[in-house]
Design brief:
globular; 37% helix; 7-stranded mixed sheet; 13 helices; binds pyridoxal-5'-phosphate; single chain; 15 strands; alpha/beta
Length: 375
C-alpha cells in the first residue's frame, strides 16, 4: 500500500487559532450579539489599540491592504499625471494601487542583498511629475528608510510605506509604518497579523491625511447623505476588528518565534554554498513574513520540485517582477536585480509555531540539495 507522504505546508494557521479559540469565539459572539457590523465600537477600539501599539496618532480601518494603499494615495492628493517611485519586486497590489488612482508607477531596481528598493537609484528616477516614494518592507525586512526619507525631503516628496508584510518590524528601533507620511497595512489571513478575511489599516500622524482617509473609505462622505468626493465602500468590519483585537497582543511573541525559526534555518544552512540566506543586520528587526533564500548555481524550479517530492511546500515570491507583468511590459524596462531575484528566490515554510522537529526534517531534505562548503 502506498501511504501518502506527510506534506509540510508553507504556512499553518491552526496552532495560532487553536491557542486563541475561546477568545476568538467570545469575539464572534460579542459582535453577533451587538447587532453592529460595520464601523462600530470594535473598529474604533482596534484603531486605538493599533495606533497605540505602533506609536502613531491615528489609524483608519479599511477593507484590505490594497484599499489602504489606494486610499492613502488619494488622501495625499495623488492622481492622474503624477508619478510614484516604487519597487518592481513586490506583490502586484503595490503598483496596482498607484495605477488605480490614475498615477503612474515608476520602478527602480532593488538592492539584491535586501530585496528592497535600492535608495541609490531613486534620485535619477525623479521627474517633475514625481509626487511620492512608495517603499515596501518586503518579506518583513525594513527598507532603507533614512535614505528614502532624506531623498524625499530634499525633493519635497511624500513617503507612503507598504507595511503589508512587516507588521511589528522595526528600522533603527522605530516601528515600521511610522516613518512615512502615511502607511498601509494588510491583515490578509496569511500576514503576520491576519484577520479571518480581507482587512487593512492606514496609519498617519497627519490630521489632514487621516480626515481624507476617513472620508474616502465611506463614499467620500463625512456627514450622512453628503458626499464631497468620489470615494469607496472600504470599511473594516466589526467582526474582523474584534478578531484582530484578540490577536494584536500576541504579535510580538509570534514575531519573536518567527525569528527563532529563522535562526534555526540560518544555522542549518550555514554550510550550504548553493543558497544565499536572508541578510541579517543589526539595525533592522526582521519579522520574517517569509524566509526567502536564493538558490544559486542550479535551477531553482528543479530544486523546488525535489523539495515538493519530499513533501515540503515552498513558494516563489515573486516569479514575475512587476515591470514584466502584462500591464507594464510595453515599457520594456530592464531591472537586472529584480529579474535575477525572480529566478532565484524560494520561500521556505515559515510560521511562528513551526515545530523544531518538522523544521529539522525540512533541513534534512534541503541541505543535501544545496551542496557543501569546500565541495
Ligand atoms: C498583501 C499585500 C498587499 C495587499 O494587501 P491585501 O490585504 O491583500 O489587499 C499589498 N502589498 C504587499 C507587499 C502585500 O504583500
Amino acid at each position: 500500500m502506498i501511504t501518502a507522504r506527510p506534506s509540510i505546508p508553507i504556512l499553518d494557521l491552526t496552532a495560532e487559532i487553536e491557542s486563541l479559540w475561546d477568545e476568538l469565539q467570545e469575539a464572534f459572539v460579542r459582535v453577533m450579539g451587538s447587532g453592529h457590523f460595520i464601523l462600530g465600537p470594535e473598529v474604533s477600539a482596534f484603531e486605538r489599540e493599533v495606533s497605540d501599539y505602533l506609536g502613531v496618532k491615528h489609524a483608519v480601518g479599511v477593507n484590505s491592504g490594497t484599499d489602504a494603499l489606494v486610499i492613502s494615495l488619494r488622501a495625499l492628493g495623488i492622481g492622474p499625471g503624477d508619478e510614484v517611485i516604487t519597487t518592481p519586486f513586490t506583490f502586484f497590489a503595490t503598483a496596482e494601487a498607484i495605477g488605480i488612482v490614475g498615477a503612474s508607477p515608476v520602478f527602480v531596481d532593488i538592492d539584491p542583498a535586501t530585496f528592497n528598493i535600492d535608495p541609490q537609484l531613486i534620485s535619477p528616477a525623479i521627474s517633475r511629475r514625481t509626487k511620492a516614494i512608495l517603499p515596501v518592507h518586503l518579506f518583513g525586512l525594513a527598507a532603507e528608510m533614512d535614505a528614502i526619507r532624506s531623498i524625499a525631503d530634499e525633493h519635497g516628496l511624500r513617503v507612503i510605506e507598504d507595511v503589508a508584510q512587516a507588521f511589528g518590524g522595526r528600522y533603527k528601533g522605530q516601528m515600521l509604518g511610522t516613518m512615512g507620511d502615511v502607511a498601509a497595512f494588510s491583515f490578509f489571513p496569511s500576514k503576520n497579523l491576519g484577520a479571518f478575511g480581507d482587512a487593512g489599516v492606514i496609519v498617519s500622524n497627519d490630521e489632514n491625511i487621516v480626515q481624507a482617509a476617513r472620508m474616502l473609505r465611506t463614499h467620500g462622505s463625512m456627514k450622512k447623505n453628503e458626499s464631497e468626493a468620489l470615494g469607496y465602500n472600504s470599511r473594516l468590519d466589526e467582526l474582523q476588528a474584534a478578531i484582530l483585537r484578540v490577536k494584536l497582543p500576541h504579535v510580538d511573541a509570534w514575531n519573536q518565534q518567527r525569528r527563532q525559526v529563522a535562526e534555526r534555518y540560518r544555522i542549518g544552512l550555514e554550510q550550504s554554498p548553493g543558497i544565499v540566506r536572508p541578510i541579517v543586520t543589526d539595525y533592522t528587526d526582521h519579522v520574517y513574513h517569509q524566509y526567502t533564500i536564493r538558490v544559486v548555481g542550479q535551477d531553482r524550479d528543479a530544486f523546488r520540485q525535489q523539495l515538493s517530492e519530499a513533501g515540503i511546500t515552498t513558494m516563489v515570491y515573486y516569479p514575475i517582477p512587476l515591470h514584466k507583468q502584462a500591464v507594464y511590459a510595453e515599457q520594456c524596462h530592464s531591472f537586472p536585480c529584480a529579474e535575477r531575484s525572480a529566478k532565484e528566490v524560494l520561500s521556505l515554510p515559515m510560521w511562528p509555531q513551526l515545530a523544531e522537529g518538522t523544521q529539522a526534517s525540512i533541513l534534512q531534505h534541503l541541505v543535501p540539495l544545496c551542496g557543501r562548503v569546500g565541495s
